[in-house]
Design brief:
This protein is an alpha+beta fold. The chain has 4 helices and 6 strands.
Length: 180
């Protein structure tokens, strides 16, 4: 009797830990930010642009959803950053820990803005049914994220400036820790 229960628990564990990729309503495959496994090379599925001046690209976005707790019946917002693996690529010669840390920091910047978005929605008690307000707030935080993303990529010169890259890694890691 112990063996079937063990196998069932093992199956559930494996199922829960291997479903990293999810599919949107539009059919796009995405991966949500996960602080225990932010990013790995398997998340880059697109074919690299060999003639590109940059060494890789991370297709990342903010993700906002609403839900209802079926047990208690209350509504809630959920916000994360997400990447699109089939739109993200890196040149073969750049599969290094250094470049992976560059992309992890990039993804983490988006997660900071996803957390800020969620915090704003909660603190300002934005009505769950006020779609125009939700859209306005989302667009505001997305615009701020894109500005910060540009600043990051410009300052690090897409990871070519090692000292700036290390500074950004530390800065973003600290910001994430302080947001908890």
């Amino acid at each position: 009797m112990k063996t079937p229960i063990f196998l069932l628990l093992l199956f559930i564990f494996i199922s829960c830990t291997t479903t990293r990729f999810q599919k949107s309503k539009e059919g796009k495959i995405y991966v949500l930010y996960d602080k225990s496994n932010v990013l790995n090379w398997d998340d880059f599925k697109a074919i690299p642009y060999k003639k590109s001046e940059i060494n890789g690209y991370l297709s990342v976005t903010l993700y906002l959803s609403q839900g209802v707790d079926v047990w208690w019946g209350y509504k809630y917002f959920e916000s994360h950053s997400a990447i699109f693996p089939y739109e993200s690529w890196v040149k073969d010669s750049k599969h290094t820990d250094y470049y992976l840390s560059h992309f992890k920091t990039w993804f983490s910047i988006a997660e900071i803005y996803a957390k800020k978005l969620l915090q704003y929605l909660k603190e300002n008690k934005v009505d769950y049914d006020d779609k125009p307000k939700i859209t306005e707030v989302f667009n505001q935080f997305n615009k701020e994220y894109l500005k910060r993303e540009k600043e990051y990529l410009d300052e690090t010169k897409d990871a070519l400036d090692t000292l700036k890259q290390l500074d950004w890694n530390d800065k973003i890691e600290k910001e994430l820790r302080e947001m908890k």
